[in-house]
Specification:
With 189 residues, the protein is an alpha/beta fold. The protein has eight helices and six strands. It has a single domain, classed as Pyruvate-ferredoxin oxidoreductase, PFOR, domain III (Pyruvate-ferredoxin Oxidoreductase, domain 3). The longest helix has 15 residues.
């Protein structure tokens, strides 16, 4: 099997690291070699967070070069735009339609770009999802990450039960019910 590369991007506090663990554990359970690399910016202050997940028969490095990502799983629109140069020509973007103002926008030094979802769709195969609304329906707005994992899982060859079993093994018990509901809502969106 050819190595597959997925970039997970968001801002600090959105759960990109948990999403990468769920994805990595699901793929490992299917017998693949997996490498995960976490790249933190000012993640604890709401800055960019990028995680690389690569899997295949044998993976030698977790790093994804520009033009090398089969998929970008983006928890915020501007982060999806920033990651776009890493997407392969035939790659896919799954993006939360939420806008989170970065510090330059908050202090008035910049303006948040308009119509990012449409612009992304012009550049790549893009699925935009209101993951925040689905996460709130699941019971916690912080479950955006697992909603997006559900959206991604819908079009993968890993069975639904493998994903839910992986979530059960990866997510702490006190958050399990909300995350299973978030996954289901994303999967069925």
């Amino acid at each position: 099997m050819e190595t597959k590369s997925i970039m997970i991007v968001g801002v600090g506090g959105q759960g990109t690291l948990l999403a990468s663990r769920i994805l990595g554990n699901a793929v490992i359970s299917q017998g693949y070699d997996v490498k995960v690399s976490e790249v933190h910016g000012m993640s604890q202050r709401g800055g960019s967070v990028v995680t690389y997940v690569r899997y295949g028969e044998k993976v030698h490095s977790p790093i994804i070069d520009k033009g090398g990502a089969d998929m970008i799983l983006a928890f915020e629109l501007l982060e999806a735009k920033r990651a776009l140069p890493f997407l392969k020509k035939d790659g896919k973007i799954i993006v939360n339609s939420q806008e989170i103002d970065p510090m330059p926008v908050i202090i008035g030094a910049a303006v948040y770009p308009e119509n990012l979802a449409e612009k992304l769709s012009e550049s790549a195969d893009t699925t935009a999802v209101d993951a925040l609304s689905l996460a709130k329906r699941a019971g916690n707005p912080k479950a955006v990450n697992v909603v997006l994992i559900g959206v991604m899982a819908k079009n993968w060859d890993i069975p639904y039960e493998v994903w839910t079993d992986t979530i059960k093994k990866t997510v702490p018990e006190k958050f399990l019910e909300v995350n299973l509901k978030a996954f289901e809502l994303g999967y069925n969106s």
